[in-house]
Each structure stands twice: as C-alpha cells, then as structure tokens.
Design brief:
With 357 residues, the protein is α/β, with parallel strands linked by helices. It has a domain at 13-108: Udp-n-acetylmuramoylalanyl-d-glutamate--2,6- Diaminopimelate Ligase, Chain: A, domain 1 (3-Layer(aba) Sandwich), CATH 3.40.1390. The chain contains four helices and 38 strands. Strand 37 (317-319) and strand 38 (324-325) form a beta hairpin. The radius of gyration is 26 Å and the shape is flat. The termini are far apart.
Length: 357
C-alpha cells in the first residue's frame, strides 16, 4: 500500500520571503534564496522544514532539532543548534502560523471531494437556482429551486442546499452538510455533516405534544466557521443569528432564536438553548450548557463544563455549575476540598482509635 501525503506545500518559500511574512531578521552571511518546503515540530523537522520554539521548557527539543530554520525570540536564539538557521521574531508561534497558512492555504477550508471545477455531471441543480461563475458543485450535491450561490464557492459531494437558500462568495460547504432556510454571507465555512436551518425543538406541552411551527431563518454573517456535526436550528418567530467572524467547533447544538455576536469562540459539545443571546467576543469552553433566554455580555468567558443559568455581565470570567464568578467558584471548590480532607482525617483518626482498644 502506498503512503499518500494529503497536504503538500503549494510552493517553496525563500528565506527572504519568510522574513517579509513575519517581519523577522536573518543573520549576516545567510543566503536569502535558501528555500523551505514544509513546516514541522522541533522533534520532527528536517533540513527543508521550518519550526518554531516558544517557551523555556522546549529548550532541550530546540538543541536537538534538525530543522532547517527555526523561528525564535531573541532570548532563545543562543540555543539554536549550528545546523539550524535562526529567524528572530518577537512572537514565534503567530509567525509560524502565518507561514503555515501561506504554504498550506488549501487546508484552510473544505475543498472539492471530486476535484473538478464547475458543476459536475452527478450534481443535481434545479433550473431555477442561480449559480455565479467559478462555483464548484461536486457529484451527489443537490441545489434546490431559487437557491443562489456566489462566485468562488465550493459545494462538496452530498451536500444539500435547500430552496431559496442564499450562499455568498468564496464559501466552502463540506460534504453531506445540509443548509435549509438560511442566508450565508461571504467566506463562510461549513464543515462536513453540519446541519443548518432545520426546525427547532418546540412543542406545546400536553398529552399529544403538539409541534409549534418554526417559521424563522438562520442568518450566518461573513467569515463564520462551523464545525463538523454541528446543528443550528432555524428561528421560531425570529431568526437565529451567528455574527461575523464567529468560530464554532464540532458537535455544537445551537437552538432556535439564539443570537450570537461577532468573533465569538464556541468549543465542542457546547449546547445553547433557545432564545439565548451572546454578545461580541464571548468564549464558551467545551461542554458548556447555556439555558434558554439568558444573556452573556460582550467579552465574557465561560469555563469548560459550566452550566449558565443566569445572565452574565460583560467582560467577566465565570465557571462552575451553576456558573458564577471565577473567584467565587474557586473558593467553593477549595472549601469542599478542605471539608473532604477534614472528613477523611476524622475517619482515619476514628479507625486508629478502634484499633487500639
């Protein structure tokens, strides 16, 4: 069996190009035309790779690296081995990411599974759909009547684009994703298997649990990224909204009428119940639960596995279940630990007393 390499650099980079990208400096006598063809960690890098080092605990790996080039701060430059060129930068990891993005631009969004530009023969596109130039639609994808898809967008194999859906330019819709009752801005990334626009979980309580009509939409603004397997329900009486620049991890549930602000981060397995509102720049750690109708203020951060049941002010850090200010939560945790230690000590003393009778 062959060993395929799925991600190859699109073109080599000269050292001079690297310095322009990251604002770094080369030592005297270094050949600016030397090329780099890949990125790698310190321990895995070879002579044609660039790596980075950012932190004293990685000094041993830096001393042993075989990387051709290493991005380092001035503090750690003396530890770079003789066979490796040091490029001095103030912040090595962001510089490394900039270079990786340049070399591996094709990895930044889902691509065509079939690898053929244009509308493939196996795709089903309704005659009333409007498709701009330079759109790629893979075999097995379905585009419904009245849907509109902007230039530069990729619809991967098996994806379903419902009637009347609007998808902006330079978007990427992953394989087997479904998008209905939704409007997407430009440069939106939807990863494989995501579900956008299905009806929310709304029932009138009673013997028969009568279903409540969900007549809203999902509005996804520019530069949003939504992970694999994530579900975003359409609104009931108002729209579900995801603000520009927000990044949502895999396996997240966002219920009907939720409004999420701009540039938020929502980590995997989080669940946000109906009609909750998140401000701009909110961060929710993994497995956070947010109950319906609460508001989380701009810039607030919620620790992983927390349960938010009350409104959260702007600019704070909360954690716990139920979530509360971080210091208060830590005090409670420490108090429980002290209580548990005291009970254990008391129990051990009792056992010793029984043994000496």
């Amino acid at each position: 069996m062959t060993d395929p390499v799925f991600h190859s650099a699109r073109e080599p980079l000269f050292l001079s190009d690297i310095c322009v990208l990251v604002g770094g400096a080369l030592g005297e006598g270094v050949d600016p035309t030397r090329t780099i063809t890949g990125v790698a960690s310190l321990e895995r890098a070879g002579p044609s790779d660039i790596s980075y080092m950012d932190g004293a605990r990685f000094v041993p790996q830096l001393r042993d690296t075989r990387a051709g080039v290493c991005l380092v701060s001035e503090r750690f430059a003396p530890h770079v081995p003789a066979g490796t060129l040091a490029v001095i930068v103030a912040k090595p990891y962001p510089a490394f990411v900039a270079i990786a993005r340049h070399l591996y631009a094709d990895t930044l969004r889902p691509g065509s599974i079939f690898g053929q530009p244009g509308v493939a023969a196996g795709a089903v596109v309704h005659p009333q759909a409007r498709i701009e130039a330079d759109v790629t639609i893979d075999p097995g994808a379905i585009v419904g009547p009245g849907a509109e898809i902007g230039a530069g967008t990729i619809i991967a194999a098996g994806a379903v684009i419902g009637p009347g859906v609007r998808i902006g330019r330079d978007c990427a819709i992953g394989s087997n994703a479904s998008i209905i009752h939704a409007l997407l801005g430009d440069r939106v990334i939807i990863h494989p298997g995501a579900r956008i626009g299905q009806d929310g979980f709304g029932y009138l309580g009673g013997a028969s649990h009568a279903k409540v009509p969900q007549i809203g939409r999902v509005i996804i603004q520019d530069d949003v990224e939504i992970g694999a397997g994530t579900a975003i329900d359409r609104g009931g009486l108002r729209d579900t909204v995801i603000g520009e620049g927000t990044k949502i991890d895999n396996l997240v549930q966002i219920a009907h009428n939720v409004v999420i602000g701009r540039h938020c981060i929502i980590v995997s397995q989080t669940g946000i119940a109906g009609s909750a509102t998140l401000g701009d720049y909110v961060v929710l750690g993994g497995q956070v639960g947010v109950i319906g109708h609460v508001e989380i203020g701009d810039g607030s951060k919620i620790a992983a596995t927390s349960n938010v049941k009350d409104n959260v002010p702007p600019g704070v850090e909360w954690g716990g279940s139920p979530a509360k200010p971080m210091r208060e939560w830590f005090r409670e945790v420490m108090a429980v630990q002290r209580l548990a230690r005291g009970e254990r000590a008391k129990g051990a003393a009792g056992q010793e007393g029984q043994g000496t009778e």
